[in-house]
Specification:
hydrolase activity, hydrolase, 64% helix, 3 strands, DinB-like, DinB/YfiT-like
Length: 149
């Protein structure tokens, strides 16, 4: 499956979870793990961060990109009470932009390099691929959460 198909498929699969009942949004896949709602808010924020990285790497040479602490974002931005409709709109808009940029630059600028503050040397292609595997990993957690209880 190519990057555009996978980005689109994970977008549509994720989108439906934003409309779950409050009961389902409160489910978790394990003790001390994030709820479905927290995962969805995180996906919107993470796609925002990854989109920003992608745009920086495309636009400005020799980027050094800083990591972000997802647990601090969850805590300090109060993901449990964050308005889900805002996260849904942000997620969908950012994902559409990622798809557009992947269509235009995944192959042509894919080898373009940058430095990540924790993982070191990476490429633009790596960052597009990260959008996919990151989203898929959280979709797996959401499915586990909904299967339990």
């Amino acid at each position: 499956m190519n990057i555009l198909t996978t980005l689109t498929n994970t977008k549509y699969e994720t989108e439906k979870y934003f409309d779950l009942s409050e009961e389902d949004l409160a489910k978790t896949y394990g003790e001390g793990k994030w709820t479905v709602k927290q995962i969805l808010v995180h996906l919107a924020d993470a796609d925002s961060v990854l989109l920003d990285r992608i745009k920086r790497v495309i636009s400005e040479p020799k980027q050094v990109i800083w990591a972000f602490d997802q647990d601090l974002w969850n805590e300090n931005l109060d993901y449990k009470n964050f308005p889900l409709e805002i996260s849904k709109a942000v997620y969908l808009a950012n994902r559409q932009m990622v798809i557009h940029l992947a269509e235009k630059y995944y192959e042509t600028l894919g080898p373009k390099e940058f430095i990540h503050s924790e993982t070191g040397l990476r490429t633009l292609k790596d960052e597009f691929d990260k959008v996919v595997w990151h989203n898929q990993g959280h979709l797996d957690q959401i499915k586990l959460s909904l299967e339990s209880k």
